[in-house]
Automatic annotation (TrEMBL):
<dbReference type="InterPro" id="IPR036249">
    <property type="entry name" value="Thioredoxin-like_sf"/>
</dbReference>
<feature type="transmembrane region" description="Helical">
    <location>
        <begin position="6"/>
        <end position="24"/>
    </location>
</feature>
<dbReference type="Pfam" id="PF08534">
    <property type="entry name" value="Redoxin"/>
</dbReference>
<keyword id="KW-0472">Membrane</keyword>
<dbReference type="InterPro" id="IPR050553">
    <property type="entry name" value="Thioredoxin_ResA/DsbE_sf"/>
</dbReference>
<keyword id="KW-1133">Transmembrane helix</keyword>
<dbReference type="InterPro" id="IPR013766">
    <property type="entry name" value="Thioredoxin_domain"/>
</dbReference>
<protein>
    <submittedName>
        <fullName>Peroxiredoxin</fullName>
    </submittedName>
</protein>
<dbReference type="InterPro" id="IPR013740">
    <property type="entry name" value="Redoxin"/>
</dbReference>
<feature type="domain" description="Thioredoxin">
    <location>
        <begin position="25"/>
        <end position="165"/>
    </location>
</feature>
<keyword id="KW-0812">Transmembrane</keyword>
<dbReference type="GO" id="GO:0016491">
    <property type="term" value="F:oxidoreductase activity"/>
</dbReference>
Length: 167
């Protein structure tokens, strides 16, 4: 009987600990140090993201979900860009650069697009292999939410509004 009570007590302590960790936002992690090579050849680092709420989207032109969600990502960028929100689309290493350039130009993507030729950026961000994978980074450079697959955009918009309101 003593072991059963001990197990229940341990489970309760673990449950309360996880709840407090989530409630206090202790689960936030600092965005990994990365250098993004943009289509125009310029470079941007993770440090450059600080001060803005940023959506970092790993995608590929061959990914049907990525292509399907892109109008929503464009709309999200356009809705919040003037309020301190930025978007960075990172093309996967297996995506031919000419395809990425063509996609960005033909769809007039209004945000920065990076090529991850070596796969180092995807590796740094948690060894991203599934696309789309999206990370929301707050003004302090912390990842506050990640999505594998298309995000729930109304929920995403509420989160962005909340993060933009933070000081």
């Amino acid at each position: 009987m003593g072991i059963k009570h001990w197990a229940v007590g341990a489970a309760l302590v673990a449950f309360v600990g996880v709840g407090a960790w989530v409630y206090l936002d202790a689960g936030r992690s600092v965005a990994p140090e990365s250098t993004f090579v943009l289509l125009d050849g310029s470079r941007q680092t993770t440090a450059d993201l600080r001060g803005k709420v940023t959506l970092v989207n790993f995608w590929a032109t061959s990914c049907t979900t990525c292509v399907a969600e892109m109008p929503e990502i464009i709309a999200t960028h356009n809705k919040f860009h003037t309020k301190g929100f930025d978007t960075l689309a990172v093309a996967m290493s297996y995506d031919p650069p000419s395809y990425v350039v063509n996609f960005a130009e033909s769809r007039k993507l209004p945000f920065k697009v990076a090529l991850d030729n070596t796969g180092a950026v995807a590796k740094a961000w948690g060894d991203v292999r599934l696309t789309p994978s999206t990370f929301i980074v707050n003004k302090r450079g912390e990842i506050v939410k990640s999505y594998v697959g298309a995000p729930d955009f109304p929920e995403l918009h509420r989160l962005i509004e909340k993060l933009l309101a933070e000081t």
